[in-house]
Amino acid sequence: QVQLVESGGGLVQTGGSLRLSCAASGRTFSSYSMGWFRQPPGKEREFVARITWIDGRTYYADSMKGRFTISRDYAKNTVYLQMNSLKPEDTAVYYCAAKLSGELKFGYWGQGTQVTVSS
After folding, report:
1. Above 90 in pLDDT, residue 29?
2. Which is nearest to 59 in space by CA: 15, 86, 99, 93?
3. With contact defined as beta carbons under 8 Å apart, do 49 and 60 qualify?
4. Which of 77, 87, 89 minimizes the C-alpha distance to 34?
5. 6 CB contacts (<8 Å, ≥6 apart)?
6. Burial class (CB in 10 A: 0-12, 13-18, 19+), 68
7. Using CA of residue 56, residue 105, residue 87, residue 9, what is the dihedral sign?
8. Are the CB atoms for 51 and 70 separated by under 8 Å?
9. pLDDT at 111
10. Which of 17, 9, 19 lies closest to 111, judged by CA?
């Protein structure tokens, strides 16, 4: 049973930074890709970034490039999302997700962590 537990959300001022963590358990994740998604209030969930566990290759939504960095700690089974230069429009519930690298959709999801950026 894959379990994903996010942490690190909170309230931050415009221009500030946060680092989200996603602790993964229940599997050996070497064949998995891990992703971050977010759902702003009143909007649909959107892709933020993903990383291939085995080799660390990263992919970002265009609007996140340069401000957000996804990384993973292989030994700790933890994925991070470093968010810098935060803007009020980054306010959202952020979700960690996992999928086998060959699958199209992410099938495992965490419970989400709230990030609020004040203006």
Report:
1. no
2. 99
3. yes
4. 77
5. 20, 21, 22, 94, 95, 96, 110, 111, 112, 113
6. buried
7. negative
8. yes
9. 97
10. 9
CB atoms within 10 A of CB 45: 15
Please state the rounded mean pLDDT for residues 61-79: 93
How many angstroms separate the CA atoms of 90 and 3, rounded?
25
Reading phi first (left if > 0) and then psi (alpha if -120 to 50, else beta), residue 66 is in left
3-class SS string, the chain: CCEEEEECCEEEECCCCEEEEEEEECCCHHHEEEEEEEECCCCCCEEEEEEECCCCCEEECHHHCCCEEEEEECCCCEEEEEECCCCHHHCEEEEEEEEECCCCCCCEECCCEEEEEEC
Nearest to 112 by CA among 87, 95, 90, 88: 95
Position 4 confidence tier, pLDDT thresholds 50, 70, 90: very high
Facing residues of 20 across strands?
81
Beta bridge partners of 45: none
Q: Which of 91, 85, 81, 30 is nearest to 59 (CA)?
A: 81
